[in-house]
Design brief:
The structure is a single chain. By secondary structure, the chain is an all-alpha fold. The protein has one domain: Alpha Horseshoe (Serine Threonine Protein Phosphatase 5, Tetratricopeptide repeat). About 75% of the residues lie in helices and about 0% in strands. The radius of gyration is 17 Å and the shape is globular. The protein starts with 11 loop residues before the first helix and ends in a 5-residue tail after the last helix.
Length: about 140
């Protein structure tokens, strides 16, 4: 059974773009659901589960046709890793999210401020990493 709309033998970018075009809205909806689940798990103190679902949401969003809100998901993952003392991973997510901020977006200043506060949190916790050498990274 061959899908006529998606060329499975195409190069990766072409294939990915075909997937986004055909299924992008479904991936966006699924990414949102997993992000919401991750937030609920974090509120329950299930940080490792929240990270797992958050990462899955991030993977799904790669195939989404709507990238809005990705900076919040990435910031959330950064904060979770920081909360667990995993400073190196926290910084990596922070830097990725900062790069994805859209200076043309209407909420750019608010998003930039959110990331500034996240950086303060990471910097405030990073001294512990030098003592404990980043827990379980």
């Amino acid at each position: 059974m061959q899908n006529e709309e998606i060329n499975i033998t195409a190069d990766f970018l072409t294939f990915r773009n075909q997937i986004v075009e055909k299924f992008g809205e479904q991936y966006f909806d699924q990414a949102e659901i997993f992000f919401e689940r991750a937030m609920a798990q974090a509120k329950q103190g299930l940080l490792h589960s929240a990270i797992s679902d958050g990462k899955f949401a991030l993977d799904l969003s790669y195939y989404s046709n709507d990238k809005s809100g990705i900076q919040y998901l990435i910031g959330f993952l950064s904060q979770l890793h920081c909360d667990l003392g995993q400073i190196t991973k926290s910084k990596s997510y922070y830097e990725l999210g900062l790069k994805l901020l859209d200076s043309e977006a209407s909420n750019y200043e608010d998003d930039k401020e959110m990331y500034r506060k996240l950086k303060e949190l990471i910097d405030g916790e990073s001294w512990k990493g030098s003592i404990e050498k980043d827990k379980e990274e």
